[in-house]
């Protein structure tokens, strides 16, 4: 088993019409043993959300490091960090530790200054990929790719985006032993953020 799969995770980010959504499961495991069902894997930075899948200790470490670097940036620049800048920052943080990497594969989702969706994903050494439809990470990626490619449509409204994200994630984690046990969905619109908790199978 890869160290990236040790704690289990499933995260999807998806774009809509002037909105973006990100969904993650809540399970924290130690291989097949479930330790907790309320572990946070998605973190908010203004109108941007970062989903961190991988080793739980590195998820928490990277969240703290990102918070620190974001606050430093906003003090120095006197402006909010855009999703693209946050994505580049995260990529650089990962790449500078490439010889002893953080064992996480992040996704970044948010609205830019023109309220256009921004999505990116990267590997554990920060090599980024940018997309305009959806991006997935975690232990259920094969299932999530299949569900997203089936259900995704361009220019979805926030409610339809929520429904699509929820169905894609819940159907995917049902076929993955290392993720699931509930889910959290965040929808970012120009008016604010809508967050909802989902129930899932507890097995």
Structural class: alpha+beta
Note the beta-strand portion: 25-35%
Main pleated-sheet profile: 5 strands, antiparallel
**Unreliable stretches:** none
Roughly how much helix do the residues carry, as a percent range?
A: 25-40%
**Structural Rg:** 16 Å
SSE arrangement, N to C:
EEEEEEHHEEEEHHEE
With helices defined by DSSP (H or I, 4 residues minimum), what is the helix count? 4
Number of E-type strands: 12
Main sheet strand line-up: 10-1-2-11-12
Mean pLDDT: 97
Alpha carbon gap, first and last residue: 21 Å
How does the overall form come out from the CA principal axes? globular
Task: Write the SSE topology.
Elements: E1 10-15, E2 19-25, E3 28-30, E4 33-36, E5 42-45, E6 48-54, H1 56-77, H2 83-95, E7 104-111, E8 117-122, E9 128-131, E10 134-138, H3 141-151, H4 158-173, E11 183-189, E12 192-198
Antiparallel strand pairs: 1-2, 1-10, 2-11, 3-4, 5-6, 6-7, 7-8, 8-9, 11-12
List keywords for this structure.
five-stranded antiparallel sheet; single chain; 33% strand; alpha+beta; 31% helix; globular
Short note summarizing the structure:
The chain has helices at 56-77, 83-95, 141-151, 158-173, and strands at 10-15, 19-25, 28-30, 33-36, 42-45, 48-54, 104-111, 117-122, 128-131, 134-138, 183-189, 192-198.
């Amino acid at each position: 088993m890869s160290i990236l799969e040790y704690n289990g995770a499933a995260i999807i980010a998806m774009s809509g019409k002037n909105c973006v959504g990100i969904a993650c499961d809540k399970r924290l495991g130690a291989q097949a043993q479930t330790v907790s069902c309320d572990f946070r894997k998605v973190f908010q930075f203004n109108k941007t959300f970062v989903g961190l899948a991988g080793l739980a200790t590195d998820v928490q470490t990277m969240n703290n490091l990102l918070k620190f670097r974001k606050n430093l940036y906003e003090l120095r620049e006197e402006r909010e960090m855009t999703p693209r800048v946050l994505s580049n920052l995260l990529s650089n943080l990962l790449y500078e530790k490439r010889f002893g990497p953080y064992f996480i594969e992040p996704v970044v989702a948010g609205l830019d200054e023109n309220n256009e969706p921004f999505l990116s994903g990267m590997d554990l050494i920060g090599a980024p990929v940018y997309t305009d439809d959806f991006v997935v990470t975690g232990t259920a990626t094969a299932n999530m790719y299949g569900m997203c490619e089936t259900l995704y449509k361009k220019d979805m409204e926030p409610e339809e985006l929520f429904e699509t994200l929820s169905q894609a994630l819940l159907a995917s984690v049902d076929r993955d032993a290392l993720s699931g046990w509930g889910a959290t969905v965040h929808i970012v619109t120009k008016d604010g953020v809508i967050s909802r908790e989902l129930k899932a199978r507890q097995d």
